[in-house]
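Quick entry between incubations.
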Amino acid sequence: MDLLFTLIKTGLVMGLLYGLFAYGLSLILSVNKVFHVAQGATFVLSAYVFYTLGTTYEWPVVLAFLGAIAAAALIACAMQYLIYVPLARRDADPIVVMVASLLVVALAAYVIELVWGASVVSAAVPEWFGWSTTVGGIRVDVYDLSVLVMSLALFGVMHWFLTRTYAGLEFRAVGDNPERAQALAINLDRVYLRSMILGSVLVVPAAVLLSLKAPIHPSMGFDLLLKAVIALTIGGMGRMSGAMIGGLLVGITETVPLFWLPTEWGEFVVYIVAFFFVLFRPTGLVGSKRKPRSAKKPSDPPAAPRGAASDESSGSAMPTPVS
Amino acid sequence: MRLIRSAQIAAAVAALTLATACTTDSGGSSSGTSDVKDASGNATTGNETYKLGVGIPLTGPAASYGEEFVMATEDGVKDANKKFAKDGIKIELTTADTQATAEGGISAMNKLGAVEKAPAVLTAWGPVVAAASPVAEDLGFALFNAGAQSPALIGSSPNLVNVVPMNDVQLSNFSQYLVKTKKYKKFAVIYVDNETGQGTSKAFKDSVETLGGKVVAQESIRQDATDATTQIAKVKDSGADFIYVQTLLVEGAATMKAYREAGLKTPIGGYAGEGESPVIRKAGGDAMNGFIYMSHIPKDLDGVTKLLDRIKAEDPKRVLTNASYDAYFYSVPFVYAEAIKELRSQGAPVTGENILAVLRKKKDITVPIVGPMDMTNKLTYVGPTIIRQVNDYRVDPMSDETIDSVDNG
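Done. Structure below.
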């Protein structure tokens, strides 16, 4: 039974990490209506910034972490002003916006190779990070606890932010109906920028924790990005709770069946489950039902997925933000 | 999953190969004959430059390996050009990025073979070598493999020259040591889920079971995976006496980290790519001490050390990860120059076919560091197997202890 419990614990930790990665994606998707796959670039770049500050310059972990957050915020600003805003001005198709976002991920790998080199590097790990204990025969270490605490804390903070603060309500209002929000004197550009920054910063804890656990390399974000997207598909697009529940389900589905199956079948099971959701519950576990297509009037304006401003009510199939 | 991936790769390779056949002008053919063609009998005396293509990952996760291999090859070219200057031979390198993938390999081979018209191309990585072989046959160049060690590659193409010792002999020697000397009976294998990992895992199983051992667990790990807790937990559950690991860098580090964290006391080992990697050694920490690995490092350890020092001097920031492999990349320009010298002496054109014809017959090629290289049997070099042990993971891998060696020559 030790093996089963170990697999369950591993699945939970991995699932929470996928959820951590997916929080930012989910927020940006719900507010900006952009499937921000460039989050993978933010993830890996912030990991390298953390490595540079913490290992090359030997800054304390906390300062290196803050530096990575600052870097993620800057990257978010750059993406918003250099990619999404120009594409929105040109009224780009949503698929073009996603392709641009995808290109950023590929480009980032080359930028990293130019700046840091192609070598795999390891971040300096503080001694306290190696602490571990055994609970019921299962090893639990600082990494496991950090992922758990960070995931739950960020979920709580984001729930509070989105439901209890004015800025959070602005996020929800813009995500729900940008035209109406604008009519209420909410500055859309400001909200889009803030959402992009916050969503990007949300990926930093996952990047830092993974940097402390595994070697860093230019394409390290791809796998997590894929799993985070699957987590959102299963959990429900554009919802923080969907990101967390979806992440946990992906983690558990990936590991627990390996008690009975060979290890190479873990991902296969995940893809089968994801496929099931795509076919039979495309809104995910906590997603709300879409409006029927027939509800769209011919006079409705065309979908305006401008990378920064779109509206579910205007025909876009993007989700409404719910914390 | 493995079947699906294999089918996908096979389909991609087949499609790209077909596309290659349809879109490139085939300058040669793969006859596999052993005679030098079009020899005039009058020795060539003028100075000439000969291209040596290098198809290696220059981007992507394997680029750090690739850059080091290119540096070793460049040093080999410099030294070979000095040695063979009196013979009028000058080798010029031309590189292309394979990204260590089958698709990238085919693209790189087309560039080097069809555009650059290199008579010989040096490469590595199992998927790349497998995908590049049909291109080499189609375009008629000699394909030197200095890194992929899957036994399945031996004799798989008439144009493929394996200049690095292959895993069949290495695994046989290593298994002999584990079963007969160390008396281990039950084995577990953790392997990277690619062609090389799968092939080596199977070869290891066959090898130990032939000797009376038993493989009780075979667990795969995805390339670049960052967590191997599941694999280690399953291996622990299997009750194996020894764990054999055949992975690449990132998932190798994850495996050794998980092994350390699980507090496993089961002896563990692998191949040189694991044992010599500073990243994996650091991830494993104290648990890495006692790690037994089979190495194909040439016996001239001083020569290898000098080569590594030279690469470090050229790029002081570089952390070297391929001590065992670098010498073989370094040796290829010498092998190539020896073959060219032979062809020039016969007045024969330097083509891929003729290079291969020379290597099929010439038993007396000797290169620096590696020493004598006889590739007349299936164009494959059979080198020594050295079994080494990490005693202190923090020291240079060159300082690891040699605990056994088999001279397969």
